[in-house]
Amino acid sequence: MAERNKPRGARATASRRLARLIDAGKARCAGTLPPSQPNQGAVASLQATMGYYRAMFDPARGDPALSDLRTLLARPITLPTLALCGAKDLRAELMRGQDAYFTGGYRDQEVPGAGHFLHREQSAAVKQLLLDWLR
Length: 135
What we know:
Helix content is 51%, strand content 9%. By secondary structure, the protein is mainly alpha-helical.
């Protein structure tokens, strides 16, 4: 990759963390699929998922038709923002330190006892956090 396309700072850290998560997912899937009968649907789904996240963190892999949109999305968010994440969610680590991208106030809150679907796993806690935020 050319030096100018290498992610830097928080983006580079998130990219490295994501690469570790993808590698762990590949290893987990490899251990569950018998070599003689690979589940092609699972393999294709994993490849599509990995492609999505690689493109998200590496603009060189993204769709060139979306470059204008990526420029708009790179601007700081100027509205107050509450970011909720389950404490057991693999992406919780990726959400830490994101306040640099928000100029209108940012609060990152992990919800104990919840994974990726925190609104279903800890609905009362999520409801209370949202009500407190909106007051």
